[in-house]
Amino acid sequence: MYDFAIVGGGIVGLSTALALGKRYPQAHILVLEKESNWAFHQTGNNSGVIHSGIYYKPGSFKAKFCRDGSRSMVEFCQEHEIDHEICGKVIVATDEQELPRLENLYNRGLENGLTVQKISPEEVKEIEPHVRCVGGIRVFSTGIVNYKQVCLKYAELIQKQGGDLRLNTKVLTISASGKNQVIETNNGNFETKFVINCAGLHSDRIAKLGGVEPKAKIVPFRGEYYELTPEKRYLVKTLIYPVPNPDFPFLGVHFTKMIDGTVHAGPNAVLSLKREGYKKTDFDLKDFAEVMTYPGFWKLAAKHADEGIQEIIRSFSKAAFVRSLQKLIPEIQAKDLVPTHAGVRAQALMDDGKLVDDFLIISGQNSIHVCNAPSPAATSSLEIGKAIASQIPHQSHLETVVIA
Ligand SMILES: Cc1cc2nc3c(=O)[nH]c(=O)nc-3n(C[C@H](O)[C@H](O)[C@H](O)COP(=O)(O)OP(=O)(O)OC[C@H]3O[C@@H](n4cnc5c(N)ncnc54)[C@H](O)[C@@H]3O)c2cc1C
Asked: d(Cα 343, Cα 377) in Å, to the nearest integer?
């Protein structure tokens, strides 16, 4: 019998287990992960950026958790000697039309309590000598890390707290058993008092298994990356971002120096025909049919048909991808880039065609469901974990009794 069972061993599930173990040291905590390693999906295939929180609507969970989370992530890395670097980043406008949006972003950064600086094209060149732009913003607190390493440390600490971590264990059904719940998996059944769904790309399905209707469907958007050849890494010193399209939660293809010294370019954002579809040819009939029969998808597609088509072209045409990157660094050539990994974002979409902008955490009967945790959820993970642990109704039977 467990007090808490967490579905999903990505960064959100593991940080939640860590936070629950701190709040209730006596609790029996179980984490169920269907893959053979932690951080196998979104967490292990992301850009590795510790985001500052500049992009997000002031007052939103994203803005708060990201600003606080970037600090707690850095402290965590320092405490546990995980390689990371606060290298800062530049966001640059490549034509005059982008300048008002850059100004809005600068103001948003200030509203979100960040240290941001407007910089001229010449000042951008002092930081990133190969960038061509008409203006920029410098964001000082942005950093880089390998989130897989962070997760391995989370897992180690959960185990030290006495948590039960199960890999290769896929949740199949969830059913009520009196006041408790029975989770059926391919590796046996587990009984628990409380379920926490952190299943990323499958979170809407797990929510339904747990009797909750999330009112939004997960739509998978693949992000493909290229890597700069080693002899061209000198073109990028830190992180270089364009001004994003405010209609989308994606940041536009950018350059990221990774913590291992490689430089990645991307990710784009193209509809994936499979929830865990990392290759362009990956296809799953159930996943595909669910998207195609979802009214919200067609409303989104009708509104953003042009952007969607451009993304598909950029996915199949390296030349188109390179053209986007050349807006930032004109001297980049196709031969300087080799394809590398891809990640798939779990983005919740409502049936009215609106992408869920903020983190979405829904409470059910003895359960909590994280139904939208896209970027910057890796940065924010320690704060999301703490928020989930405090959202759980008080478990008085787990309180430590101090006898004076
Ligand atoms: C391309 C890309 C770039 C990104 N870049 C950044 C970045 O630079 N910085 C940042 O902060 N964020 C970034 N993000 C976002 C960040 O990676 C995610 O927000 C975060 O990893 C979400 O974590 P998660 O634990 O919710 O999901 P996941 O990491 O996907 O974990 C969910 C887990 O649930 C498991 N699961 C699902 N169904 C079941 C089941 N039935 N039974 C058992 N287990 C199950 C899955 O196997 C998976 O391991 C990026 C994301 C992508 C895709």
From this structure: 14
> What tokens does 112 get?
């979100």
What token pair was written down for 301?
A: 């597609």
Please tell me the distance from the alpha carbon of residue 224 to that of residue 310, in angstroms, as a whole number. Answer: 14
What number of residues does the chain have? Answer: 404
Q: In what order do the strands lie in the sheet with 143-145?
A: 49-50, 143-145, 84-85
pLDDT in tens, 196-255: 999 999 999 999 999 999 999 999 999 999 999 999 999 999 999 999 988 877 888 999
Token pair 């209609």 is found at 247
Residues 42, 346: Cα–Cα separation, whole Å: 8
Q: What is the pLDDT of residue 402?
A: 47
List pocket residues of ligand 1, CB cut-off 6 Å.
7-13, 32-35, 39-43, 45-49, 51, 170-171, 198-202, 206, 223, 267, 343-345, 373-379
Cβ proximity of 32 and 346 under 8 Å: no
Q: Distance between CA 223 and CA 39 in Å, rounded?
A: 17
Whole-angstrom Cα distance, residue 135 to residue 237?
A: 18
Separation CA 222–CA 271 (nearest Å): 6
Considering only CA atoms, which of 236, 238, 313, 203 is closest in space to residue 269?
Answer: 313
Across the range 124-132, mean pLDDT stands at 98
What are the tens digits of pLDDT across the range 374-390? 999 999 999 999 999 99
User: Cα(367)–Cα(23) distance, rounded to whole angstroms?
Assistant: 17
375 phi/psi in degrees, rounded to 5: -55, 135
The pair of structure tokens assigned to 403 is 């006898």
Residue 122, SS3 per DSSP: helix
Whether the pLDDT of residue 357 is over 70: the answer is yes
pLDDT at 245: 86
d(CA 295, CA 70): 36
Mean pLDDT is lowest, of 65-69, 195-199, 244-248, 285-289, for 244-248
Choosing from 375, 380, 383 the residue with most ligand 1 atoms within 8 A of its CB, the one to mutate for a pocket test is 375
Non-local CB neighbours of 103 within 8 Å, separated by 6+ positions: none
Atom of ligand 1 nearest to the CA of 266: 1
